[in-house]
Amino acid sequence: MGRRNRPGVRGATLAEALVVVTIVGIVGGMATAIYFASLRLYLHSTASYMAQQEADRVFRTLSRTLWPAMQVVAAREDDLTLVLPQTQGGSLVLPLSPGRVVRFFRGNAQGIWDPQGAYLWMDDGSRKALTSSLEALRFDYFPSPVQVRRITVTLTVAVRQGARTERFTASWSVAPRNL
């Protein structure tokens, strides 16, 4: 059949309309796929960043506390108790003398030791949670738990972002200066 041109009437044939709808569908599908891939990448990056920040914050607190330690009182895989030197106004009192006792341990939400707990607690007389997203914790003592010269801390934090859980494992070592 031939095409009829009627004066004053404009339009498209069915075939032309189907081609346009198909092209719009393909372009729209590609745009949607790119958008959702970008969104997934963003959520993954955000969760990864949050997990790294959480681990970094915990390591900074551990570093500030472990470095001046004078004595390791109890050394277990998921529990560390040490004695810090006495301070006055934020400065060390010389000669060094024992000050406060600090304990780091894995526990539950109530601050009770639990080897499967998701919290890392610091107890220096006032208990505070360092993280609530702990998945794994390990203290290693070198050369041995009895004669500590260096402490290595390995921890895994799991941060949930939307439906995605991002895990970050880091290891850090410190040689307490007063042991």
The tally of strands reads: 10
Strand order of the largest sheet: 1-2-5-6-7
Low-confidence stretches: none
Per the principal axes of the C-alpha atoms, what is the gross shape?
A: rod-shaped
Q: What would you report as the Rg, rounded to the nearest angstrom?
A: 30 Å
Keywords for this structure?
alpha+beta, rod-shaped, 1 helix, 179 residues, 10 strands, three-stranded antiparallel beta sheet, single chain
Can you describe what's shown?
This protein has one helix at residues 14-66; strands at 71-76, 79-85, 87-88, 91-92, 98-107, 119-123, 127-131, 134-143, 148-161, 164-174. It is an alpha+beta fold and 179 residues long. The protein has one domain (37-174). The strands form three sheets. Strands 1-2-5-6-7 form a five-stranded antiparallel sheet, with helices on one face. β6 and β7 (127-131) form a beta hairpin. It is rod-shaped and about 105 Å long. The N and C termini lie far apart (98 Å).
In a few lines, what is going on in this structure?
Helices cover about 30% and strands about 40% of the residues.
Secondary-structure topology with pairs:
Elements: H1 14-66, E1 71-76, E2 79-85, E3 87-88, E4 91-92, E5 98-107, E6 119-123, E7 127-131, E8 134-143, E9 148-161, E10 164-174
Antiparallel strand pairs: 1-2, 2-5, 3-4, 5-6, 6-7, 8-9, 9-10
